[in-house]
Design goal:
This protein is about 60% helix and about 15% strand. By secondary structure, it is of the alpha+beta class.
Amino acid sequence: MLKSIRSTFIMIHECISMSISNIWGNKVRSFLTVLGILIGVTAVIALITTVSGVSSSITSSFTSLGAGTISVSISGSDLKSGLTRDDLKTLTALTEVDGITPTVSLRAQVTCSGETQSNVNVSGKSSYYFHLNEDIVTHGRELNFVDEDNSSFVCLVSDEMVSTFFFAVNPVGATLYINGTPFTVVGRFKEDSSSGIASIFSGKANIFIPYTTALKMNNSSLVTSFTVYMSEGVTSSQASSALEAALDPMFSYEEDTYTITTMDSIEDTMETMTGMMATLLGGIASIALVVGGIGIMNMMLTTVTERTVEIGLKKALGAKPWQIQVQFLIESFMLSLIGGIAGVMLGLLLSLVFSEVIGSTFVVSGGAIVLGVGFSAAVGILFGWAPARKASRLNPIDALRSM
């Protein structure tokens, strides 16, 4: 038994040595053969790793943007199309809810000092929003509960609006006309970067006004969209369940009257989309591996033809068909493995360069590396099998005649 195992190891060692010798003896042809596998694996690794990095960057951005928040959109029913301020107070009183900021947006024409700008994004905010984002106001004051209760015509302007209408002038105290209605500027804010999930859909705001005032300008008294800030230690599933239990009786338990969007659901959707993209790109890049495998088959068939006499001598000396087949399979496997390892290194390098260029996170995908090396090895065995089988089935007498 031990003698048989030892003989097998010696044979494999000799096969590997002969394969290396044959590959090294045909450097140019071996390089061209390996090149096909190298390009295929490089493409697979670079594409999948880059997509994984982009996915990680997007997920991190979404997580930081909507951490601790839930977005609720009201589609309403025939009897109730939105929520009143009392309804919002009921939701705010929930243990799982720390606070609520309604989202009331409108596109408006803004005029000041003879300058007019159209399609400006005006966002209605509650006083609680400024309680959460104390550092957002850089000059003047924030919108407070008095402005909210009285539906005051006051506003905060962004840095972009200041550069448009108040260049080198303090905007506080000035008058803006929003859709023809005069508003007093009470403050200036920096770019809104923490407004929760709702900002993904509503866009960056240029002007803040009390949400009650925004409702009046929209000829409405009902809120149809708002962001919920969860209490500390509460999970999104717990908060969602509490919101559903409170919203259902408000709409007489009718179905499809509201939609609750959590960060988890957005992340799941993003992961599904990026996963499909990575699979698609990886599948396209794998075509290059198949082409490389055809190159290996072509080389091995040529090698079998060139080494017909060698195969005949080995068979005449007692070599078994399976031993001949193993030798050629090992050679094919080594060619593809060399291309696979080189392709992984080059693919990771290209992915690192792409990540630096596009500003995404560089994430080494272990699955992509395993896929690249494993697929290249499988290609070597698969496409090397036919030439190896042909070599093992050569008649030793016919092979020796070709001397």
